[in-house]
Amino acid sequence: MRTRVAVRTRKAAAIAATVAVAMVSLLVPAGEAQAAKEAVQAIPRAYDLNILNSESNQFLSLGSGADNGMPVIQWSWDGGRDQYWNIWKQVDAPGEADDRYLIVNDWSGKCAGISGGAMYNGAPAIQWDCNHDAWANYWFVRSETNAAGLTVYRLKNVWSGKCLAIAGGNPTVGAQAIQWDCISDPDQQWHLLLG
């Protein structure tokens, strides 16, 4: 499966403090009442983000390699480059109401997408070459305020209309990200942390 260096154990003790400090550095400060469009404009082309699931408290990462089709999974923080993502705004047409984004892994250079452009609940998230013709690689990035009053983001796939999630907020390291109908559950809420 996935090999990791021994520093993971050493870093584990500092995880809670690191996450708590990083939460303060959210792209849009907590408690601000902004329209989703305005919040998204704060990240027109954001580099080196860590994407933390609100319920599982694990970071979006990659599976065992940089090849097409490798799973997009969650993993405990270890500082690996596969835990850093870039969100690239795509302008498809002048005046388009809904901006679309690519979510690009910093290590592999590939895009997070939904396998085969599937439309069903539970379809797995994978990485693939950033093909600008493949709508399964595009995401709407929308902000909302969670129950704790923090700004969180919902990553909605343009093709399927479903949201990126960790099924049931499963905290298991290595659990694959999936898509699901967009509902107000924390397993579909993500913190975008500046890396």
Q: Mind explaining what this structure looks like?
A:
By secondary structure, the chain is mainly β. Helix content is 11%, strand content 32%. It is built from three helices and twelve strands; from the N terminus they run αααββββββββββββ. The protein has helices at 7-12, 15-24, 36-40; strands at 45-53, 59-62, 72-75, 85-90, 100-105, 111-114, 125-128, 138-145, 151-157, 163-165, 178-180, 190-194. β8 and β9 (151-157) form a beta hairpin.
Order of helices and strands: HHHEEEEEEEEEEEE
Terminal CA distance reads 26 Å
* Number of strand elements: 12
Major sheet description: 6 strands, antiparallel
Topology:
Elements: H1 7-12, H2 15-24, H3 36-40, E1 45-53, E2 59-62, E3 72-75, E4 85-90, E5 100-105, E6 111-114, E7 125-128, E8 138-145, E9 151-157, E10 163-165, E11 178-180, E12 190-194
Antiparallel strand pairs: 1-4, 1-12, 2-3, 4-5, 5-8, 6-7, 8-9, 10-11
